[in-house]
Structures are given as structure tokens and as C-alpha cells.
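Section: protein folds

Sequence with per-residue C-alpha cells
===
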Amino acid sequence: QLQASGGGLVQAGGSLSLSCSASAASGRTFVDYSMGWFRQAPGKEREFVSGISRSGRKIVYIDSVKGRFTISKDVAKNTVYLQMNSLKPEDTAVYYCAATWARWDQVRGHDGDYDYWGQGTLVTVSS
């Protein structure tokens, strides 16, 4: 029900913009949902990268991407974005978007908190 896109191959220092949209068939809108981006590198566990609260006023990043990644939410387009700049080889991973209905305006940082997941989009950063 979530469709992630925008992955690809980029050289270190480059940029990519990921998008995550809810399918029209799902009938869901992001206005009441806390959204997150996770990633899973080869041989590693999936990790939280960034999250945004239902209002969009609360945002969290892991330390390794602070200052390089920007999460945003466009409720009118029912889309969440992850702008990734100054990419590093260690950012190489499959990136997943996730959503959970949020009663409170807070960011959820654990994958178990999320109910809906996109299919993943591969980001490869070459050195």
C-alpha cells in the first residue's frame, strides 16, 4: 500500500531523492500518520534513518545522516520524501518507507511501531 521510489546508483558526494506514496486504492492519507524511513544494508539489520510526525513539526534523524538528509511530508500529494545529499558509500542500502496511524504528534523510531511498509528501493553509493 506504500510505494517507494527514487533509488539508484550514485557516486559518493552525490544526491538522491526518495519518495513514498500511498496507493489510491488504500484510501489512506498521510495527514494522520507518523512516517519513517528505514534502511537495511547487506548483512546488517534494518535501522531507523529518519521520521516525521503526523503534523510534520517533529522530525528525527540518526546521527550519521544529520545535516545530509532531509525528510518532508506533502499531505496534499500524500507523499513523504527523503532528500539525501552528500551521500557516502556507507549509505548503501535498501531504503524502506513506513507508516503508522498516530494518535499523538510524535516520531516513532522502531520498526515494530509501524504498520505499513513500502517495498523498498535500492540506493547504491559508489566510492
Notes: The mean pLDDT is 93. The first strand starts at residue 2 and ends at 5. The radius of gyration is 14 Å. The chain has no helices and eleven strands.
